[in-house]
Amino acid sequence: MTVAPMPFPVRFLAILALLWMGAPTPATATTHPGQAELVREVARETGKSPQALNALLDGATRQQAILDAISRPAEAKPWKDYRPIFLTEQRIADGVAFYRAHRALLEQIGRQYGVAPEYIVAIVGVETSYGRNTGKYKVLDALVTLGLYYPPRATFFREQLKELLEMPDNRLAGPIDTLTGSYAGAQGWGQFMPTSIRDFAVDADQDGHIELSNSLPDIFASVANYFVKHGWIAGGPVAARAQPDGAARPIAVKDAKPQWPLEQLEAWGYAPLQPLSPAEPSSLQTLEGARGPEYWFTFQNFYVITRYNRSPLYAMAVDQLAQAIAAGVGQAEVAR
């Protein structure tokens, strides 16, 4: 049987159809660079719906204010300007009041973990002014902005974003697209990043849900557990003032990790102003104080605080605030 040739318009449409069927399928359009690969990873590892993950990420917004904020951190300031931000009379007084209001719980958790309660209070005081300022940015916006649009630290923040998307509901304060926090995506009174929630957050009140914004047991225990898991030494020193002599050897350190026994620093010309064990593993921090250089012996517990925030200025502020709070609590008890 002879088949009549198709009319030209029909042949043309048929050819187009064949070409279309043989062409590669175009990639699904995404809102953010790297979103497709991220969604594939999370879906593969958790079984979550790619459509739901894409819808969640499509709702996130790149925030220029977040990129601006991370480019000017407070830790870039010299100590003489950084210290007054956190060591104010008001913050100390608020810390004393906060400690006294929650003393039983703080001291119970302090005994359980071996972390002095004033350091738990100081962390919450420095991070969020005792829970009053936990951050105004949407956590999802922050982590999308820094993980997908900020090359200098994209690896770290993409990991945080991935962890947020993978996190079980009982470790979050609510739906992911409703969470708020810092410009860096930290959450709760202690400002935990998603991987810190995963690794160190504690359900201290045993209600089956880790709540870092509304459960004081969970908040306090999570901060203490973070310290312990990073090597906190119960009763150990944090920092102590050092006095250089005229021939003191200049010492540069790349981080706060203890590197020498204290007696070695003494041999290099730095004298302690209080009794300390000569064998205590230590390091030395030189800070730009209001009246010139300040020299500080720092120890393992100081290093642990820098695992919370890597800046030695941050660790020094936490230490000095903790001491001021403890002194204030003690004075209040004597006055009673």
Question: What does the model show?
Answer:
This protein has helices at residues 8-22, 35-46, 50-58, 64-70, 79-86, 89-101, 103-113, 117-128, 139-149, 154-166, 194-200, 216-229, 262-267, 300-308, 312-335; strands at residues 137-138, 180-181, 239-244, 260-261, 270-272, 281-289, 292-298. The protein has a domain at 34-72 and 136-187: Bacterial muramidase (Helicase, Ruva Protein, domain 3), CATH 1.10.8.350. It starts with 7 loop residues before the first helix and ends with a helix. It has 336 residues and is α+β, with helices and mostly antiparallel strands. The strands form two sheets. Strands 4-6-7-3-5 form a five-stranded antiparallel beta sheet. The protein has a two-stranded antiparallel ribbon with strand order 1-2. The protein contains 15 helices and seven strands. The longest helix is centred in the last third of the chain and has 24 residues, at 312-335. The active site is at 127. GO terms for molecular function: peptidoglycan lytic transglycosylase activity.
Descriptors for this entry?
Helicase, Ruva Protein, domain 3; globular; 336 residues; two-stranded antiparallel sheet; alpha+beta; five-stranded antiparallel beta sheet; disordered N terminus; 15 helices; single chain; 51% helix
